[in-house]
Write a structure and sequence with these properties.
single chain, mainly alpha, three-stranded mixed sheet, 3 strands, globular
Length: 361
């Protein structure tokens, strides 16, 4: 019980820090005229500050530092990794945040962004947070990945960074999805006794909640690329924290359930752009929230729908973890079923939207 109270307290600390930091960033942005650029893809008008991700970074890192210090000098036995490993994590978080801030202000080229994301991911991977084995379900067999462990880890981290980044197209959307995901991460890692990952998940939850107070429609500030990339980075790395010394690819099954909406949206965007022979880094107005807008839903109704399905995905991820914790591979059919159901829903939305556009002409 003491550990749960402590987790609640550090979550509240992260919330308070960001509740203080974000208004300062809003005021600073207005003074410096650091505004988001409007275009036909953006669902807002007027001058909107875009450095909310800086507040997320500051509150998250400060609270993690406080967590490590408290665990060191008290009897709270929640931290299982060394200060050495935290340095690699902090370096990765810092690089990805700086990349996001720079891109918000000067619009970095796609391949430059990819190289910097690659650098941040490699630092974390070589710091010990990686997949070292490929797990084969039902055979209970781990195949050593060797040097490919870093390749797969980097691909995983970069993919989730960009999946969350692509969802950042509406007030409260990317932040809300990340908030729900971090909450279920925290619960799942707590019941599976991965206390460090649970602690960082709840810290992230408090941090995002503090930001959403100012980002829920009508927003007073955007997280920008600095926020969306950082959230994706955190949600990719936190599941790897318990894997110091040999993580398995089985680790990604739970996050792929909890984050199924942004992952499917990213896959759909890649397939759509390749089919049209466009760069996968090109932009369009056909993400899931754009499709829901085309059906006439308001921003708050869209958030309600996506939040509801995200909560369902989180509960399904919890069921997967609960079953796996009782018996190996007993939850794998939950993973398969969830992906089949959500993929079908995405296809139905796509084709109904396509049919609606044809009849409107």
């Amino acid at each position: 019980m003491n550990n749960i109270i402590f987790l609640l307290l550090i979550c509240i600390v992260a919330l308070i820090i960001n509740l203080v930091a974000t208004p300062f960033l809003i005021s600073l942005s207005h003074k410096k005229r650091w505004y988001d650029i409007t275009n036909d893809r953006k669902i807002h008008s007027g001058n909107m500050p875009r450095i909310g991700g800086v507040g997320i970074f500051i509150s998250f890192l400060l609270t993690v530092f406080l967590f490590v210090v408290i665990c060191k000098f008290t009897d709270f036995d929640l931290n299982t990794i060394s200060r050495y490993h935290y340095l690699f994590l902090a370096a990765g978080f810092l690089i990805i945040t700086i990349l996001g801030v720079a891109d918000d202000f000067v619009s970095i080229r796609a391949w430059h962004k990819l190289l910097i994301q690659l650098t941040a991911a490699l630092i974390v991977s070589f710091g010990g947070f990686n997949f070292e084995f490929f797990y084969i379900p039902f055979l209970a067999q781990d195949i050593p990945l060797g040097l490919f462990s870093h390749v797969i880890t980097v691909f995983w981290i970069i993919s989730l960074c960009n999946a969350i980044n692509l969802m950042d197209g509406m007030d409260g959307l990317a932040g809300g999805i990340a908030l729900i995901a971090s909450f279920f991460y925290g619960i799942i890692f707590l019941i599976t006794q991965n206390y460090t990952a649970a602690s960082l998940s709840f810290i992230l939850f408090g941090t995002i909640l503090g930001f959403l107070v100012f980002n829920f429609p009508p927003a007073k500030i955007f997280m920008g690329d600095s926020g969306s990339l950082l959230l994706g980075f955190c949600l990719a790395v936190i599941p790897l924290i318990n894997n110091i010394g040999g993580g398995s690819s089985q680790t990604i099954f739970m996050p792929l359930i909890v984050l199924i909406i942004p992952v499917l949206d990213m896959i759909a965007a890649i397939l759509r752009r390749r089919r049209r022979k466009l760069s996968i880094a090109s932009s369009d107005r056909e993400h899931v929230h754009h499709k829901l807008i085309d059906f006439g839903l308001s921003q708050k109704k869209i958030l309600f729908v996506i939040y509801l399905f995200s909560i369902f995905a989180g509960l399904t991820g919890f069921l997967y973890a609960f079953l796996e914790n009782r018996k190996l591979d007993s939850g794998f059919m939950v993973f398969i079923t969830t992906w089949a159901v959500f993929t079908s829903l995405f296809l139905v939305l796509h084709y109904k939207n396509k049919a609606r556009k044809k009849t409107s002409f």
